[in-house]
Amino acid sequence: METDLGLWSILIAIVGGAIRVSTPFLFVSLGELLTERSGRINLGLEGTLVFGAMSGYGVAYLTGSAWAGVAAASVAGAMFGVVHGVICSIPRVNDIAIGIALMLFGMGLAFFFGKRFIQPVAPYLPSIPFGWWSDIPQIRAALDVNVLFLIGLGLALVISWMLRTTRVGLILRVVGDSTDAARAMGLRPVPIRIAATAAGGALAGIGGAYLSLYYPGSWTEGISSGQGLMAVALVIFARWNPVACIWAALLFGGAGALGPALQSVGITSGYYLFYAAPYVLTLGLLIATSSPTRAMSGAPGELSITK
Amino acid sequence: MSSPGVHPNGALGVETLGMTMRFGAFTALDDVSIRVMPGAFHALLGENGAGKSTLVKCMMGFYHATAGQMTVGGFEAIIRDPRDAHAKGLGMVYQHFTLVPSLTAAENLVISRRDTPAVIDWARERVALTDFMDQMPFRVPLDIPVQQLSAGERQKLEILKQLYLGRRFLILDEPTSVLTPDEADEVLGHVKAMCTNGQISVLMITHKFREVSAFADDVSVLRRGRHVGSGQVAALSHAEMAAMMIGAEAARAPATRSGDPGTAVLEVRGIRTRDRSGLKLIEIDRLTVRAGEVVGVAGISGNGQMELMEVLTGQRPVEAGEIRVKGAAYRATREQAQALAVRYLPEEPLRNACAARMSVTENIAFRSFDLNGSGRRFWLSGREMRTRATELVTAFKVKTASLDAPISALSGGNVQRAVLARELTGDVSLLVISNPCFGLDFSAVAEIRARIIAARNAGAAVLLMSEDLDEVMELSDRILVMSEGRIAYQTPAATASLAEIGYHMGGHA
User: Comparing C-alpha atoms, which of A120, A140, A121 is closest to residue A130?
Assistant: First the structure.
């Protein structure tokens, strides 16, 4: 059976891989989107992601419930967000520098507390077999979709709706676009930015829990391959639009699945090169979508990188 | 129920009594009492730093006055913060826009309300907004992001926002500084009509006498934090108001022009470039500026003047065409600018012509720090830079606390003077200027214009882009009109008619 599929098997593996690999991208990028829409940039989400993976795995192992792990990861992520938000509220503190510091801090802290969770096995997150109709094992495997991916899709739509039609959403956009306008309206930008950064951290934590509790599905120190950092590029590529984040995450996920997919059909030459696909894609897309003369559309006005 | 401080149609009267504001040892506002009658259009005149902004910030609760009281609608009012002021019906339209650029007009209006619902029912809000707009004398498109609106539309929207929020006393802080004369007249005309109807009272901060005499009922003048005069506009002449504003020191009269234009210095041929959005094409077929002449480029902002300036300063690449200075192909490199003596005074000089955090001395040295006589130097000479800065600061009357202060600490007029000092020193064959007097006070304007004319009389070719038509008329020997990215019209200044220029500015050619 397997040999009959030929090139199709690569495509199926990429689609399945895109769904599997894209989930952490989706969560981290939605989190980063919330933070950036409030006018701050949090480069520390990579550290939050790794810490979320560790704490999620640890709590899932100790309680026996994967969902308790997800909750713990989101709380831990929110705490990192609050730390970033509060420190950046001090005048003359640069959010990018704090982000990098928190990234290293989060990873270090995760490795320190995570030592004892490297051996044990924690329960996995459930998935829904959308491939039940097929006899072909590759299709069944590819369409075995994790619940968190679906939650992520729903969340992107909810955030998109929130930014358009709720008071909270409009306030977030006001604060992110013009501090002066927000002040003139009687809003206090600082608590709003802290809350947005905390929410962003919580989402990044959940993205981390997905890594350790589903795919690849264990806690190791090398669990993240830079998803937290690439999510920043992804948000720019998605032009700060939550629905575009879904497509961007799937695209990056698909690129990330290219290496394993080729390997599964026995193509091993240039193996490491294919693993670099997402990073090459990041560079390529940022160059292709940039322009030296045109202003970036959709960028929140208060963002320090676009000012 | 109406009281003496309220017009039956809602306009509030507001009065300050002995308002005093001290920052440390510095008295920004000294015992100022002014009275705005209900339904009046009251102008507040004064030079930069005269205390106008401080006064209105005290009224709006941004500052807590050291001493003094206020009445609103005839009753004593204590205003602790802007929210208090808003609750009492006081609103302010700021000099810099406070609309959120990426939100649409409808979103901006709805979110500015105190009682915005948690989930916004856009269908219902839209009906309410349309009803509100129908009662207003002017309207703006509700569904496009504010950043795509013209300056005039944004200013109208700022005023509409205040009315939408139910404010009945408006403070307008230089509301026309970003508008063309026509836009300004339109906006102020509508505001005036609402005052006459008794819907609102207005206190307008301004520098422009023309607007005061055309629209205001009363005027109060501040100088150095003191209230130096008040009266009915009808009873005062421009000269009397100017005398109150600037006191004994008279501004320098513009130098009379002398000499005839010489050979062509700047030649622009067939330049094509795109604007910031990449959608609009800017095409300049032919533009020549000769030595000893001022060529003024008039036009409504956003018709390609900024792009032309950026092409000339080398900030924007061109798709086709060539620029020649004294016959040599010009690419706006530093070496060429030095060799050909090309100097610039761009708009927003703090952003386009200064390193904001570097000192005044360093900023003044930008043209010359690497020159040693006619040769180059490797090591900077701090002493030489300082001597030069000291001379120029004195000659151009730049007011700064210290030569080592960052240039961003200077007021707008003084940054402009410092940049002008740098650009006009030494040989100047070509001077390219954009909106040189934007937002400056009366005496600074007169002085900067005189310097430009002096440069022209000394034989420099001057290209002046300005949105202020009066400025173009006053300074130019020849006038061009830009419209939709092209030069739509040109005429010698001597025979220029305002009507004809306005016609071409509107894009009716």
Answer: A140
User: Distance, in angstroms, between B317 CA and closest chain A CA?
Assistant: 8
pLDDT at A48: 96
Strands (E) in B137-293, as ranges, are: 169-173, 201-206, 218-223, 226-232, 264-274, 281-290
Residue A305: band (very low, low, confident or very high) from pLDDT cuts 50, 70, 90: low
User: In this complex, do A300 and B119 lie within 8 Å of one another by their Cβ atoms?
Assistant: no
Write out the E strands in B346-441: 371-372, 375-376, 430-434
Domain locations along chain A? 2-288
Pinpoint the alpha helices (H) of B219-354. Answer: 238-246, 305-312, 334-340, 349-352
Say yes or no for a CB contact (<8 Å) between B111 and A167.
yes
Q: What is the pLDDT of residues B351-360, one digit of tens each?
A: 888 998 899 9
Distance to chain A for B175, nearest Cα, Å:
16
Distance set, CA A156 to CA A25, A70, A150, A248, B161 (Å): 12, 18, 10, 12, 32
CB of B487 within 8 A of CB of B480?
yes
Tell if the CB–CB gap between A186 and B96 is shorter than 8 Å.
no
1.20.120, 1.10.357, 2.40.30, 1.10.3470: which CATH number matches A2-288?
A: 1.10.3470
Q: Is the pLDDT of residue B404 over 80?
A: yes
Cα–Cα distance measured from residue B313 to residue B347, given in angstroms and rounded to the nearest whole number: 12
Cα separation of B274 and B310, whole Å?
11
Largest CA distance in chain A: 67
In chain B, CATH 3.40.50.300 covers 14-98+151-246, 251-341+463-509
Contact residues on chain A for B274, CB-CB shorter than 8 A: 293
Interface of B with A in 114-133 (CB under 8 A): 116-120, 122
pLDDT at position A296 is: 63
**Residue A115 three-state SS:** helix
Q: Could you read off the pLDDT of A95-116 as tens digits, one per residue?
A: 999 999 999 999 999 999 999 8
Residues of A within 8 A of B94 (CB-CB) are: 184
Closest CA to B99 of B145, B53, B166: B145
CATH architecture of B14-98+151-246: 3-Layer(aba) Sandwich (3.40)
Tens digit of pLDDT for each residue in B11-55?
999 999 999 998 777 788 999 999 999 999 999 987 766 788 889
Put simply, the chain A residues between 277 and 296 with a CB less than 8 A from any chain B CB are 291-295
Task: Locate the chain A residue with the closest alpha carbon to B85.
Answer: A186
| Topology annotation, domain B251-341+463-509 | Rossmann fold (3.40.50)
Distance from CA of B451 to the nearest CA of A (A): 33
Dihedral sign for Cα atoms in the order A65, A70, A74, A77:
positive
Write the residue in B82, B122, B316 that is nearest to A186 by C-beta. B82
Q: Does B62 touch chain A (CB under 8 A)?
A: no
B2 pLDDT band, cuts 50/70/90, is: very low
Q: Does A306 touch chain B (CB under 8 A)?
A: no
> Which candidate, B384, B388, B413, places its Cα nearest to that of B400?
B413
**What is the percent of chain B with per-residue pLDDT over 70, rounded to a whole number?**
92
- Partner residue opposite B111 with nearest CB, options A174, A294, A298: A174
What global pTM score does this model have? Answer: 0.73
Per the CB < 8 Å rule, is B274 touching A293? yes
Residues 6 or more apart in contact with residue B196 via CB below 8 angstroms: B39
